[in-house]
Amino acid sequence: MKKFLLVLFVLGSLVVKAQDINKRVSFNFNETSLYDAIIKIENQTDYQFYFIETWLQEYKVTGTYDNLSFPELLDEVFNNTLLNYYITQDGKVILTKYNRIYDELPNTFFEPEIVTNTITLAPKEESEDPIFYNKNTAQTISEIQTVRIGKEKENVKQNAFILQGKLANAKNGYPAANVAITIEGRRSGTVSKEDGSFSIKLAKGHNLVKFQSLEFQDISKRVIIYNNGTLNVDLIEALEGLDEVLLRGNVNKAVKDAPAGVTKIDVEKSKNVPLVLGERDIFKVAASLPGIATAGEGANGFNVRGGKTDQNLILLDDGVIYNPAHFFGIFSAINPFSTEEVTIYKGHVPAEYGGRLSSVFDILTKDASVDKIKGEASIGLVTSNAVVEVPIVKEKSGLLIGGRTTYSDLILQNLDNEELEKSSASFYDVIAKYNHKINDKNNLKVTAYYSKDKFSITSDSLFGYSNRMASIKWRHIFNDENTASVLLTNSQYKFDIEFDGQTNRNFELGYTLNETALKLIFNKKFNTKHLFKYGLELKRYDISPGFIRPLGTNSQVESRTIADEQALEGALFLSDIFKVTKDLQIEAGLRYSFFSAVGEASQNIYEDGIPKSDDSFIETRTYGSGESIKTYGNPEFRIAGRYLFTPSFSVKGGVNTSAQYIHRLSSNTTASPIDTWKLSDANIKPQRAVQYSLGLFKNLNENMYEVSLEGYYKKSNDILDYKVGAQLLLNEALEQEVLQGDGKAYGVEFLLKKTYGKFNGWIGYTYARSLLKLDSDFAEERVNNGEYFSSNYDRPHDFSFVGNFKLTERFSFSSNFVYQTGRPVTVATGSFIINDVEAVTFSDRNEFRIPDYYRLDLGFNVEGNHKKNKLAHSFWTISVYNVLGRNNPYSVFFVNEGGEIKAKQTSIFTVPVPSISYNLKF
After folding, report:
1. What distance in Å separates the CA atoms of residue 170 and residue 174, rounded to the nearest whole number?
2. Contact present, 213 and 187 (Cβ < 8 Å)
3. Topology with regard to the membrane (predicted)?
């Protein structure tokens, strides 16, 4: 650059003939190419132009220019171009592209340059200094494409300009969203929007701009900017090793995120876990992780960190699912092919979630494809499953439809057993989701779900239950820092029983729960350190506790209907993810929940201080429609912190308080589909809990291994339980049959996970206790002398191993081993004779345990060939459930046979269960 200036000075000094630049000229151009216009000017003046012809090809000149000085003419002609000009004293016009020619050096030219990472920084003060570009220094970085942006203008003192443009996929031209754009050597950057557009401020002169994304190959461009301008970049897809990169990223997330006790399930990889009858089941995979268990094989529901089954909030696209299981928990009621992501909060629960004490299962459905038809299907021995995605408006909206059904009825009817031939066991579930991108700032998602179960196994009773859910979510983007979402959901759970026996006592019985919710969520990125989420939630419950009516004209059953229950529940919440330092991050939240049982309803009133019974009953008080019966309010504090000692080792801790206003009533040792739900009222208080947790998280060998050790302690109040011999169904005075007491749970969870490689999987171990205390001054309300005793789901030792070994890219072996301490039971400890009939005495509640549970499953997986151009990809799974044929007891009970008391044991699967399934994906 210095040599070039000296040459210009020499040329300027060799004056041959001075030109009069103020001489007036006139020209007329009409869609004239810039090259022809310059030739015309040369021919009609004494000036001679010097330029590179290719610079002129894209420009045309149109206009009438009368009585202008020569510089004024050139200003007009080159106004809308990237070209500058310099007029020498001897009548030569030298054209330059982007930059200007200076005929004197700036005052700061011989001052030392400020250099950081080989990039010269622009001066902080405003100046008109020319832009210098040290090409030799820049080449030491790498051979990177240099682009020049804008046109350098005279008398412009700005030291920063705006670069904008669009990023696109080089293969198909689709916008490239969420690409990070950074400037080397400076703490500034941005992210491309959904339409691929971006805008970023660059210092005048030389900048090294980087474009980085997991989806595309990294690219850098050396941008020399002279003024505001545009740069469009085509990015090349990063196809190689993409899945492995994502997997490693998820592993590192476990170390760096603030909350402890958060688990994500890879739905796609769950297909390699061998399960009963070859069914892919996200809940069974969840139960193999530390801290999550079931009460037994075939049991309905989950016990998370010593909590009851009703203390888990199951959300499908933000709508509540009350019973996410088919056929007593043997099959999941959530379609795995339509599921995108499952996040389980079992420790720290964000403030936006509430209403349950133990956990949140946040299940998100896939967005339907908006560019081409996609689908997935499977055929198994007992069930078939299919999902299809159809674009509705290309690049804007799509529809996903999925369904699953069983043909077990056909199997039962063809068995060589007269009783089983008359049995039935069937279920199905369907899901539909519509997603629509309204514009760059608004999108809409609508989900509808329905499941139905019906079964009658060698009995005169036909049982049925169903789930129905619908959700609408609208999301609006105000700007890069502010977004809002509006959610409207409705959930219904109902069951019915039809008894059609040989007597005249045939009946039909039913129960219905309905929940409607509205939720507003706002996100505010305050700065680089604070990310706020706040909003409100409103719910209405409508419960029909049950009815019974005669079935058939000869039935002597009297019709009876229990009065409906209604309630309103709401919450205000605020949370902040606060990056205190690079290593310390805190997620703090406050949720204030309130609940009101409302009329139209009747409420039994009892004397204070004594057990609720017919003897203490005072009156039945009636409340009008919408009138408040009883109101509760609870502040709930949520705080979690993470300290990063190294990039691969962190310590996390947290404290969570929560309240629950709806209760599941069950007199069985495990949850069943015909359990009822009861709202809090004047006689039944809401449940409350506080949980403390602390964990160590470490990644090893470049994130190949994830190791975690977490401990927790949870204290609960007003946990609902039942009296011995309680009648819970169709009872107008349920408060007389239940007890409320204190609970405590504590444990240590260990997880060792190998995230990638030929052999991958995890080992999980949990030592956990779950205890309950039902104490009172009155003997009829006291259990086990008022001391803590094991809950029905207290299983101290829980060990699981899930492994997958890849022989090749197509063939792999998988295994699943589970060991659990036997579940607590109450057993007969003695007997006596009354009227020549033997009766028994029982132990303290849950004093003994059934035998320990263990099971080994094996599977062999065959992937289809990996040809690039084929209609669909196939996948075979051959598995054996309970390979060892272990007769794991489900429950122990006692019967009187011929006047003699006998203990009986039930089991679900007592022999190895082979299965084969075929999966197709297109």
Report:
1. 8
2. no
3. Multi-pass membrane protein
What kind of fold does domain 249-921 have according to CATH?
Answer: Maltoporin; Chain A (2.40.170)
The yes-or-no verdict on residue 113 having pLDDT over 80 is no
Q: Encode pLDDT of 328-380 as tens digits.
A: 677 888 888 899 889 999 989 999 999 999 999 999 999 999 999 999 888 88
- CA 754 to mean position of chain CA atoms: 22
> 911: pLDDT confidence band, cut at 50, 70 and 90?
confident
Per-domain residue ranges for the chain? 2-97, 115-235, 249-921
Cα angle 361-367-373, degrees, rounded to a multiple of 5 = 140
Return the pLDDT at 111: 60
Going by pLDDT thresholds of 50, 70 and 90, the confidence category of residue 444 is very high
91, two tokens: 């009548």
> DSSP letters along 431-476, please?
EEEEEEEEETTEEEEEEEEEEEEEEE-SSSEEEEEEEEEEEEEEEE
Place of tokens 């001391």: 787
Query: pLDDT tens digits for 623-648?
Result: 999 999 999 999 999 999 999 999 88
CB-based contacts of 405, cutoff 8 Å, min separation 6: 383, 384, 426, 427, 428
CATH of 115-235, one of 2.60.40.1120, 3.30.300.180, 3.30.1300.10, 3.50.50.60: 2.60.40.1120
Residue 390, H or E segment: strand 383-393
Q: CA-to-CA distance for 329 and 283, rounded, in angstroms?
A: 10
Q: Which two tokens stand for residue 883?
A: 């390979």
Nearest to 842 by CA among 828, 855, 852: 828
- CA–CA separation, 522 vs 94, rounded Å? 58
Number of H helices, E strands in the chain: 8, 59
Q: If you search the block for the tokens 């595309």, which residue do you land on? A: 216
Q: Distance between CA 331 and CA 876 in Å, rounded?
A: 19
User: Which pLDDT value is given to residue 673?
Assistant: 66
pLDDT at 244 over 60: no
Between the CA of residue 369 and those of 119, 196, 357, 399, 755, what are the distances in Å?
A: 44, 19, 36, 8, 28
Read off the DSSP letter of residue 686: P
Q: How confident is the model at residue 457 (pLDDT cuts 50, 70, 90)?
A: low
All residues at 6 or more sequence positions from 393 whose CB lies less than 8 Å from its CB, including other chains: 370, 436
User: Higher model confidence: residue 503 or residue 464?
Assistant: 464
Q: Say which residue, 874 or 449, is predicted with more confidence.
A: 449
What residues form DSSP beta bridges with 476? 442, 484
Residues 6 or more apart whose Cβ sits within 8 Å of residue 477: 440, 441, 442, 483
The second-level CATH assignment, the architecture, of 2-97 is 3-Layer(bab) Sandwich (3.55)
